[in-house]
Amino acid sequence: MRTCGFRGLLLAASLAATAAHADELPVALQIQLLSNMTTYIANMRPPDGSPVKVVVVQAPAGTPTRSAQSLFNALQQAGKLGGFKVEPRLLPFADAKALAAALAAEKAQVVYLTSELNEKAAAGVVEALGTSGTVSVSSVADHVRLGVVLGFSLVEARPRILVNLKQAAKQAIKFDSGLLRHAVIVDR
Amino acid sequence: MGVGETDIRASRPLRGWRAPRLLAVVLLCCVGFPVLGADDALPAEPTPKPDEAGLESLLGESVVSTASRTAESESEAPATIWTISGTDLKRYGIQSIEEAIRFLGHAMTSYEYDSRLNAAFGARGYLSDNLGLHLAVLIDGNQAGGSAKTARGTQPYLMPIELVDHLEVVIGPGSVVYGNSAMLGVVNVVTRSAASLEGTHVVAQLSAGLPADEWAKDLSWGELWSRAAVYGGQRFDVGGEPFALAWHLGLRWDRQEGRSVWHPVSGADVFEDPLAAHTREDVFNRDLQARLFARATWGRWAFLSWVGFNRGTGTGPVNGSADSRFIEPEYGFDAAWSRHIGDRGSFALRAYAVVYDSRVSTVTYGGDEAHCLGAVGMDTCYDTVQYVSVKPFLEPVLTWDWKQDGTHVTTLGAQGFIDGSIITTSVTATDDSRSAVDEPILAPIPNGALYLQHIWRARFGTLNVGVRGDLGLLGSSLSPRFAYSTSLWTGGTLKFATSTGFRTPTITERYLEIEDFLTSNPDIQPERVHSLEVDLGQRFGLQRLQASFFFTYWSDLITTRGVPINGRSITQFANQRNVWSAGVNFGWQGAHGPFDWGLSLNYAPGRRAMPKGILGYSDQELADIRVRREALDQFGWSALGTVFLPADGMPDFYAPAHVSWSLGENLPRLSVAVSVSSPRMRAGYANDDTMLDLRNVDGPRLPWSVDVRGAAELQVGERVGLRLTVSGRSLPTVANPPRVGDTTGPDPRGGLGVVSSPSAPISAMCEVSLRL
Questions:
Q1: CA gyration radius, chain A
Q2: Fewer CB within 10 Å of terminal CB in chain B, N or C?
């Protein structure tokens, strides 16, 4: 019995899926916040007439992509971000180099990371963005510590915005200073 | 305006949506508006102004997960929900869920009601003083250790205050997802993640209060308690995955208020000479409580575990003299594993168990020589009861997002659990030389439940429809819920919800038999509650207003009655009480500048419906349903052909409110919380002839009462925090009598009064916290 139970645990542990983070905001609220951010962050606004391009980064092929897919679908349904038409696109993460090339072609305003991306992948996205003006946003607070510019988290049942100021400066991201009154600064 | 500008514009290609704008510019020019430069004529998309009000409103939206077991905005949750932040719990020096509800809650009322800090909770017309059986108290969603038979989830030592992120209070029935006990509501204690705790923290508290007992001899009769806790969070790698651990070790020592317990002298007329008709016993209860709590996440796994220990002497949970004592160890473990299924589903499997071991030694006041001689052949003895409750749960939950966008989400869950009890009674000689142990009673009662919930988020609003079926030896129940919420306008929401709740009878209520006193009831059924509510909410900036209008019917509530057996009236638990309630809960949470506040105004009268034709009942028939004619004469009123009595212990009106003010950076923060209750009836008044006797100086009705707590906190440097709280209460006793002695006793002012558990009228607590 003990062996069977132990095997069961090993089998369970070997499955590649990642549980959704308990402190993640509902997708609809993430999109509402993202929409509001376009009024604060100049880099999120597209050149005249163009839609806001949002690249939703999927976890590497073969791993679950439910959160990314949900976010993509919800963005499509929303249709607009901050009054601008939105054009979402799903992009699987393979490595930083490939993603950098894909992002250069996309010319996206926003790169969105979801909870399915582990820390290594999140760091890869940051590396891929380099010093470009594309705003990286994540639904996982820990990703901001790794260099993602903007993150959402849940503290005491209320949404919080996290800003990595150092990374924002490095990427020359321009935003209204009023945002900092409502955000938690993460500089590591 | 220059003609040339028009030319410039005309020379540009007119691209789709710009044409109307150009036309507008031309028209404006024609009516004499100021000249626009060439570059202004076809401006790029104007820079939008930061939408600060919108952002504040979004950041003020609570995200909750208790009502439907899925993360959702409070505005679309299928119930009235109130969140209490961990910051507020610490800020106001809150020690228990009961205090959190009393000072910071909404729609629910509560008070400590006996000498062991057990608590009574009330909402929507009904107040439960039945050991927490009508309120589901969860810790991170774990149902096993929260409510159950001893209200232990509501006791101070079981809540790791410093580790609490927030409390989610769901008002109204929640059996659709939580089954048994979720009648008044559901309180979920959500703990902090390891990531939110930096390093190790220490906190020490010391509190002292003035005596409240009217017969107190001196100031030493006042309460005294101290508490220390150490807690922290750590993260490290295990097998390539981050392992995040949050932990909390708490220790609390209590010397409760001194109390005079009055034991009636057999045959004496208590009104003739109250002092001579009682003997007095002075009691000082002492408790020592410790608990280690840990929460961990590792990959797809989440764990909770705790070990608790509670030891005490004196009266309270046992109906004995001051020499009685108890030990209550508790062990809990919870493991949950989850994974995605394809791109639409997720599956979680949760296994958890609690073992609660209560060992009580009861010393009868004055001794019982005949009993001791019969049992162990000695003059003096004590009775012991060991009650071991074992509750293992297994809970698989499947969630399916049909369209991968959250618009159609179905949850299918099952719950299998065993409500296991092992009860061993014995009689032991006082010198422990002999002991007579009865055969242990084993009662492993299996239970099963299946629930289904579907959430449909559409343009017309959000529908939440669910049903749960519970099957068990102690009763079966079907619990449906239908809820609809919609956005009326910016920040405004409307909710409609109808829900049900139930409580299955306890083993005692169903099976216990005591010769010539108590008989079992094979026909006893679960208690039920049905609720209908309309909830209006409005958010603007940091302000959140909420008004809930409800109608609630509590049916088949279990109380005792008399049944004739062999010509004698024997006590039996039975479904025989119905309570009606309709009212409104108004709540406001907000902040502005250095202030933040909360206000809750509640009108929730409860009226107990008497059986039809009760005014024509004989004295024996009234005695059998445990109602005195004096109660009907003094407090009964008729409507629609039914006689109603005020519900036990439940105030018609109650209002907690709090406000906090930061004096500035590096300066103290001041906070005040107030809880007001309208007059309410003492519990059990309808069947207490001494309490109902007009010669009783107190009578069964408690007056208006106010509880106040003021707090000041100061951060000294980055690592040290200081806090001082001062609490006062206008009613230093509570609605319920103590569980030992008589419900009444001599009053120092003369005559006979009602005896209640005393609580300090004024107390002060100081706290030092340190981050290592």
A1: 17
A2: C
Written as one string, the DSSP assignment of B315-330 is: SSSSSS-TT-EEEEEE
Record: contact A45-B45, CB cut-off 8 A? yes
pLDDT for residue B248: 95
pLDDT in tens, A141-153: 889 999 999 999 9
The distance of B237 to chain A (nearest Cα, Å) reads 12
Rounded-to-integer distance, Cα A126 and Cα B260, Å = 70
**Residue at B386: amino acid letter:** Q
Q: By 3-state DSSP, what share of chain B in percent is helix, strand and coil, each rounded to 5? A: 15, 55, 35
Beta bridge partners of B562: B571
- For an interface test with A, the pick among B12, B51, B236 (most A C-beta atoms closer than 10 Å) comes out as B51
Residue B342 is predicted with a pLDDT of 81
Nearest to B61 among A27, A29, A69 (CB): A29
Which residues, at least 6 apart from B430, have a Cβ–Cβ distance to it below 8 Å? B378, B380, B381, B382
Q: Which of A41, A67, A156, A175 to mutate to test the interface with B (most CBs of B within 10 A)?
A: A156
Closest of B174, B131, B121, B136 to residue B152, by C-alpha: B131
Which residues of chain B have a pLDDT value below 50?
Answer: 1-44, 146-154
What integer pLDDT is reported at residue B5 of this predicted model? 31
pLDDT tens readout for residues B668-693: 999 999 999 999 998 889 998 888 99
Q: ipTM score of the complex?
A: 0.87
Rounded to the nearest angstrom, the gap between the alpha carbon of residue B601 and the centroid of all alpha carbons in its chain is 18
CA of residue B232 relative to chain centroid, distance: 26
Tell me B708's DSSP state: E
The residue whose two tokens read 């309630």 is: B581
Among residues B85, B22, B136, which one has the least CA distance to residue B499? B136
Q: What is the pLDDT of residue A7?
A: 37
Q: Which of A158, A179, A181, A182 to mutate to test the interface with B (most CBs of B within 10 A)?
A: A158
* Token pair listed for A88: 């979402």
pLDDT of B131 reads 62
In this prediction, residue B80 carries a pLDDT of 94
| Chain B residues within 8 A of A66 when measuring between CB atoms | 340, 342-346, 401, 404
Opening angle at CA B542, ends B536 and B544, nearest 5:
15
**β A158-163/B241-264 pair status:** unpaired
Instruction: Dig out the tokens for B744 from the structure.
Output: 């009444």
| Residues B696-711: b if buried by 16+ CB within 10 A, e if exposed | bebbbebeebebbbbb
| B542 burial type by CB count under 10 A (0-12 exposed, 13-18 middle, 19+ buried) | middle
**Contacts with A48 from chain B: Cβ below 8 Å:** 44-45
Cβ of B51 under 8 Å from any chain A Cβ?
Answer: yes
- Asked whether the beta carbons of B527 and B551 are under 8 A apart, the reply is no
**B207: buried, middle or exposed (CB in 10 Å: 19+, 13-18, 0-12)?**
buried
Higher pLDDT, A64 or B419: B419
Distances (CA, A) of B428 to B277, B357, B374, B422, B771: 31, 19, 11, 19, 49
Please give the pLDDT value at position B160.
85
The Cβ-side half-sphere exposure at B706, using a 13 Å CA radius, reads 7
For residue B38, what pLDDT is reported? 34
| Residue carrying the six token digits 């296991």 | B420
Residues whose CB is less than 8 angstroms from the CB of residue B733 and which lie 6 or more positions away in sequence, other chains included: B212, B756, B757, B758, B759
Cβ-based neighbour number of residue A4 at 10 Å: 8
pLDDT of residue B18: 41
Residue with tokens 């009580």: B360
A18–B340: do the CB atoms touch at under 8 Å?
Answer: yes
Distance, in Å, from the CA atom of B260 to the CA atom of B214, rounded to the nearest integer, reads: 8
